[in-house]
Specification:
The structure holds two protein chains of two kinds. By secondary structure, chain A is mostly beta strands. Chain A contains no helices and eleven strands. In chain A, strands 2, 4, 5, 6, 9, 10 and 11 form a seven-stranded mixed beta sheet that branches. Chain A has a four-stranded antiparallel beta sheet with strand order 1-3-8-7, with no helix packed on it. Classes of the chains: A mainly beta, B mainly beta.
Amino acid sequence: GAVVSQHPSRVICKSGTSVKIECRSLDFQATTMFWYRQFPKKSLMLMATSNEGSKATYEQGVEKDKFLINHASLTLSTLTVTSAHPEDSSFYICSARGRGLNTEAFFGQGTRLTVV
Amino acid sequence: AQSVTQLGSHVSVSEGALVLLRCNYSSSVPPYLFWYVQYPNQGLQLLLKYTTGATLVKGINGFEAEFKKSETSFHLTKPSAHMSDAAEYFCAVSPRIRGSYIPTFGRGTSLIVHP
């Protein structure tokens, strides 16, 4: 199956700093990428959808200036959490869908962000 | 609008027993249906999906699910639980629109397997 690699798997940052999370499709071209946030014991909350070369579409309630998403190439999307605060601590997961893969997306292994 | 409900945040079974995880959806048109598994601190892995055709879908690791339109359900089953099945399971739906995959996830069911 298609492989999506997410990096880093864990990151600890200080409050007020920014942190970047990368999501790469290793063996297919990801025309669409999705970013999710998962709270403890909760489901996945879709944050935004990005298409290669276009601006991301954010879900209602997600601050686009705080969660910057870039999908500059067909194999890479990044999520930057700007001016992080402890309440941003969470598990962030990306998924990617390729051309022709209309009914499935593949998930990265997730990034555990802890803001101290 | 579509939504998905997973009954029971926790399901506990003994090793070797039947596993049944429930999922009901709400949608004006039957959507695409998925089951995913998540192990601790990992992403999601697709177990199986229903798009069209046979309503009984077989997936990986011995799991299967049956789409029942009349009951708007897509319950996940496995005849005999194994310790390695202990994980979080998510049911998801996506609109039945060609070229579209925007899943909505249920809240998840934690499967606990006792020796």
